[in-house]
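Sync notes, pocket subgroup
Present: LS, DG
LS reminded everyone that the earlier model was apo-only. Rerun requested with pyridoxal-5'-phosphate included. Inputs:
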Amino acid sequence: MLAQCQKMRYNKDMQLDFSTRMNGLNGNATREIFKLLTRPEIVSFAGGLPSNECLPIEEIAEISNTLLKSKHATRILQYGTTEGFVDLKEALLTHVKGVGITNQTLDNCLVISGGQQGLYLALSSFIDKGDVVLVENPTYLAVLPMIQGFEGKAVGVNATENGLDLADLEEKIIKHKPKMLYVVPTFSNPTGKTYSVENRKKIAELSAKYNVIVIEDDPYSALRFEGNALVSIKSFDTIGNIIYISSFSKTLAPGLRVGVAIGDAHIIRKMVILKQSADLHTSNLSQAIVLECLKQNLIAKSVKKSMPIYLQRKNAMVAAIQAYMPKSFKFTNPEGGLFIWGEFEKGVDTVALFKEAIDKNVAYIQGQVFFAENVHKQVDALAYKNTIRLNYSTETPSSITSGIQNLSKIFS
Ligand SMILES: Cc1ncc(COP(=O)(O)O)c(C=O)c1O
């Protein structure tokens, strides 16, 4: 019987009747790139990870050890509630005051398994087949297949130096009647850009005027190495239409998979119901570690230690671009986060030249994958092939310099 089952499982002729939702979902377009990155000789500007040197390994090891030897051990190793530990939620409500989010109660707060889960739960709570989600053009790559998976449609909104192009936003709200707007307003992935406070306020006003739910995705604002901190879009929320999502992946460790969603209590309730089906609750051990790190102010301390490293790497990349890349190459110079966004002259094709870059042992992400209108297009028809995302957090300054020098040989 067992042998028969195994035979059936491996029968190549078997037709797998997948859901229609899976149509056109091919996984992350950059997965082939990540396979290449295991080669040690590659200088990778393709990632989006915190630097290994910045992970507070010793501190987390000590905290885990203490927690598991304490009276909290059974609470940690047992099942927990879907909403998350109450004491962690209380600490998170204090934590988000740092971005101007005040007057929230425990019912406005959900512990999530990373920001990615927050996006999934928020979109899943609202998006039906055919619903439009406005996104900045370009936007976080992984949100595009998610919207597609819910059979929604992502529509790109133009951006300026200071944030979303508000005229384009309003025009697209009127034209498409979107249910949601998704933005990464601080040190965006992929551009590294930050919306001005005025732009944030206007986004809150426009979204309230037209009753659009906003997902404000904020994994990076704490990674500021220059300039002054800004308040969130959520801090201007007057009607409860803004869902703020953040995580400890970039400030502590992504492997912990802990984040937070703050929103109207009715929205959070729907997200809790969906989370029950998804994973019951976020890992109790991870929650307890994050709580302890917050209590000991370890997150702020760890970020403070890493920011000079990130700044040095960003400066090395900017200096190398200025020294070696063609003068026509336009690029962002962020005050924090992990990414520089670049634009070559029209006609330069970062998709076609990728193989040459790999032959020269440098990897990057081709910018076209971050644009909503490219989701259903064949490679030949893709727009924005002259754009590129460069990550500087994981390579040393000297590797960054030699990597950019090698890239310049391909793009000059
Ligand atoms: C803009 C943005 N949102 C969400 C995420 C998901 O992060 P996590 O689930 O680790 O919090 C990332 C990860 O890189 C990101 O760049």
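DG: DSSP finds 14 helices and 15 strands in the chain.
LS: Residues 48, 114-116, 140, 184, 189, 217, 219, 247, 249, 254, 259 surround pyridoxal-5'-phosphate (CB under 6 Å).
Action: DG to write up.
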